[in-house]
Design goal:
- By secondary structure, this protein is of the alpha/beta class.
- Helix content is about 40%, strand content about 20%.
- It has 18 helices and 22 strands.
- The two termini are about 30 Å apart.
- The structure holds flavin-adenine dinucleotide.
- The site of flavin-adenine dinucleotide has 37 residues, from helix 1, strand 4, strand 8, helix 4 and helix 5.
- Flavin-adenine dinucleotide binds next to helix 1, strand 4, strand 8, helix 4 and helix 5.
């Protein structure tokens, strides 16, 4: 990465965007349109983020199979290429300082960049599903199976059972069917009572009917293909010795056992707040989405001035809403550094806000309909919750009995959340379990503190830093 610093200001860029998904691409292109010097960094090899992963390289047959929602990404990626934005792929951001200095690793070397405004469009990740047996070989998140399909056209072999709830689960089931996988069953864990919670929001959702039509289409397709459906499943166990062999559960008062070679779990997506937590930004627990969200204003600025978080990283709203929020964040950034005046900013924002509202209307309905079951955060004692350190649910409950009030104390005494994923796979579950144990709200209990490096990186990459300032800050944090 060859980066020059403006000797007068010390800044390398006007705007840096982390993340090349719909929010990040839209933010970078909008900022560039207003004359900002922009760099976009993404750890993936190509633009696209989660929804449009690999869209610029996927063979035509795979693009066809993944459908028009996926193909939309080609247009965005082509526009990005022509936009004058400096793109750095295969580039992992592993630290961000309070002065917005970004430390990123590319091909084993770390570099520091300093923008006037930083837009972190780091998207979402799948909610953990701590179900007995979820650590067995052959169990994947449904999103992970979709990543394999998008990146390499691979599908699980043998009988594949999908378990959980949410629109992405239905989408992945249909995409796998089209790609030739043997979908043996769809086991929905969504409680039937969710329908009552969701119904009051149906009117608003139907103002953007395309989403409801898409959902109905996916359900019909699975029915036509004869995929067995189970509803309100509970007491789920994934069985097997050295790998998955079956799934057992209770549905409609009966015990069911299905032979399976692969089990794909999914209970919705939640904002990826690792970077926001690293910077100790203000967060709120959203009781509808059952997730942490960084607090942002109308221009997606966080509690750290100059840092904006649009897209699914702020609140789950889908790809088209992410595109709109990315553009709004860029308008906020361009205005903050004087590249656009207030009246132009407001005028240009109007159309994006309208789009954002349009694509957010369906959200409350979906959130209520696919609210994960309560039992998901009450796993049996022997179920592993922290996969990196193999800490089980019983240990976390024991920590609560011993008096651990929050996730950080629990981490200190049990190593839960101390592994290389820094709690991505367990943070939400641990916070919710502790909140239950102490009869507190999740907001009161809080979440893990995150420290650099955000992602595992080789030591040589830190050592190779041209300026030692960030590696010193990283070390200081580590020993605090
Ligand atoms: C696994 C998965 C699959 C999904 N599939 C679909 C789908 O098929 N259809 C659909 O409608 N919705 C899908 N979604 C939901 C989808 O993510 C969003 O609606 C949409 O992509 C959000 O856009 P975004 O730009 O906010 O984030 P994303 O598209 O997630 O983009 C975030 C980008 O940030 C990058 N990034 C994150 N951290 C770093 C870092 N430290 N350094 C460098 N780069 C970083 C990531 O590599 C990623 O490219 C999926 C979600 C997940 C988690």
């Amino acid at each position: 990465m060859n980066i020059s610093t403006d000797p007068g200001s010390g800044f390398t860029h006007d705007v840096i965007v982390i993340g090349g998904g719909p929010a990040g691409m839209s933010a970078a292109m909008t900022a560039a349109e207003y004359g900002c010097k922009v760099a976009l960094l993404d750890e993936q090899p190509r633009p696209g983020g989660q929804i449009y992963r690999n869209v610029t390289r996927a063979p035509a047959a795979l693009r066809e199979l993944l459908g028009p929602d996926y193909q939309r990404g080609s247009g965005l990626a082509e526009r990005l290429q022509r936009s004058g934005v400096e793109c750095h792929f295969d580039t992992t951001v592993w630290d961000v300082g309070q002065d917005l200095t970004v430390t990123a690793q590319c091909h084993g070397r770390s570099t520091q960049l300093r923008p006037r405004q930083l837009i972190a469009a780091t998207g979402a990740m799948e909610r953990p599903s701590p179900i007995p047996g979820w650590t067995l070989p052959g169990v994947l998140n449904a999103g992970a199976a979709q990543i394999l399909l998008k990146s390499s056209g691979t599908v699980p072999s043998g009988a594949t059972v999908l378990v959980g709830g949410g629109p992405l689960l239905l989408l992945v089931a249909c995409q796998l069917l089209d790609a030739g996988a043997r979908v043996a069953a769809l086991v929905q864990t969504t409680p039937t009572s969710n329908l009552l919670r969701a119904l009051p929001h149906l009117g608003r959702a139907s103002l953007t009917p395309s989403y409801l039509a898409k959902g109905a289409g996916l359900l019909q397709k699975l029915k036509r293909a004869g995929v067995p459906f189970y509803r309100d499943a509970r007491e789920i166990r994934i069985e097997g010795e050295s790998g998955v062999s079956a799934l057992t559960f209770r549905a409609g008062g009966t015990c069911v056992s299905i032979a399976a070679d692969a089990v794909l779990l999914h209970h919705g997506v939640v904002p990826n707040t690792q970077l926001a937590r690293l910077l100790r930004l203000e967060h709120r627990w959203d009781d509808t989405q059952l997730a942490w969200q960084p607090c942002v204003d109308a221009w997606f600025e966080t509690s750290l001035p100059g840092l904006r978080i649009p897209g699914d990283g702020a609140s789950i709203a889908g790809a088209l809403a992410a595109e709109a929020s990315g553009a709004l964040a860029a308008l906020g950034a361009a205005a903050a550094i004087g590249r656009v005046d207030c009246s132009t900013q407001e005028r240009e924002a109007r159309a994006w806000r309208k789009l954002l509202r349009k694509h957010s209307r369906v959200r409350r309905f979906l959130d209520e309909l696919y609210r994960p079951p309560e039992w998901l955060v009450a796993p049996p004692d022997e179920t592993i919750v922290c996969r990196c350190e193999e800490v089980d649910a019983g240990t976390i409950r024991h920590m609560a009995i011993l008096g651990c009030q929050g996730p950080n104390q629990t981490k200190f005494f049990s190593r839960c959340g101390m592994g290389p994923c820094q709690g991505r796979q367990c943070a939400i579950t641990v916070s919710q379990m502790l909140a239950r144990a102490h009869f507190k709200s999740v907001q009161e209990v809080g979440s893990y503190r995150i420290r650099p490096p955000l992602k595992p990186i080789p030591l040589g990459s830190i050592a190779a830093l041209a300026s030692p300032s960030v590696s010193r800050s990283a070390c200081k944090e580590e020993f605090e």
